Amino acid sequence: MRKKIIAGNWKMNKLPNETISFFEEFVPLVKDTKNEVVICAPYTDLFYAILSAQNTNIKIGAQNMHWEENGAYTGEVSPQMLKAIGVEYVIIGHSERRQYFAETDETVNKKLKAAHNVGLKPIVCVGESLEQRESGNAKEIVTKQVKMGLKDLTNEQIASTIVAYEPIWAIGTGKTATKEDANETIKWIREEIENMYGKENADKVIIQYGGSVKSSNAKELFEMSDIDGGLVGGASLKPDEFSKIVNAV
Ligand code: 13P
Question: How far apart are CA 49 and CA 70, in angstroms?
């Protein structure tokens, strides 16, 4: 059985002192969960988060990275740099990065391979916009993101890739996909991965749902057959609220 991974994406929020206080409150609240708990913090908070999470069941992730190991890429951070300070996860191709920073399925694929090459666990985001959904193109869009973003991996790499299905219209809007819709789309995603890599590998891929997950809807979403946890934005900023999401199942 696939385990559930509940990851918080803090986006561009929290200073180091706020990071430290978050962990002081959060650590005891989630210590008994069987789920994998991840906090994806801004670069400037990562080191504080890693120190605060030492000897706990909480793993730390970054929200982005470059695909090259080093070089003249002003302002960028490499997979090796993240790995060296103890980061374990990295979000790749979040819709906000696709929308505001011109990330494409091609760059997502390069980053995904680069993450695997250093042993970072990638969380690859896919999802359609409201316009795409309303015009009936959701399946086509998500399928293309999966086909191009997840191509040319080894069996071992695909099996340890995490996918987050985040419909853009549900991010930060308070509108959540219904549990049936989210489950259905996640099934398509798994089918596409099966077409690419076979059933045995596809069955191992953890696929999360993201988009306005909160303590009041986490349980019903996470109990669905194909939803293997969540990628949580706004609600992950508050220790009490996020712990209720982690402990929902
Ligand atoms: P919200 O939970 O704030 O809707 O954000 C979802 C998200 O983008 C997580 O990556």
Answer: 24
Distance 71 CA to ligand 1 centre (A): 32
Q: Angle at CA 168, nearest 5°, toward 2 and 241?
A: 60
Any catalytic annotation for residue 131? no
- Among 36, 128, 166, 192, the active-site one is 166
Summarised one tens digit per residue, pLDDT across range 48-82 is 999 999 999 999 999 999 999 999 999 999 999 99
Q: What distance in Å separates the CA atoms of residue 148 and residue 6, rounded to the nearest whole number? A: 25
- Between CA 155 and CA 92 the distance in angstroms is 19
Ligand 1 center to residue 41 CA distance, Å? 13
CATH number for the domain including 79?
A: 3.20.20.70
For the stretch 140-173, what's the b/e string if a residue is b when 16 or more beta carbons lie within 10 angstroms of its beta carbon?
Answer: ebbbebbeebbeebeeebbbbbbbbbbbbbbbee
Rounded (10°) CA dihedral 160, 221, 42, 114:
20
Residue 153 Ramachandran class (φ > 0 left, ψ -120 to 50 alpha, else beta) = beta
Range of the domain at 11: 5-246
Number of structural domains (the chain) is 1
**Cα–Cα distance for residue pair 124/23, rounded to 1 Å:** 25
Q: Is 116 a catalytic residue?
A: no
Q: What does the radius of gyration of the chain's CA atoms come to, in whole angstroms?
A: 17
CA 159 to the chain's CA centroid: 15
Cα 125 to Cα 210: distance, rounded to the nearest angstrom? 9
CA 11: distance to chain centroid? 12
Is-above-0.70 flag for pTM? Answer: yes
Per the CB < 8 A criterion, the answer to whether 173 and 212 are in contact is yes
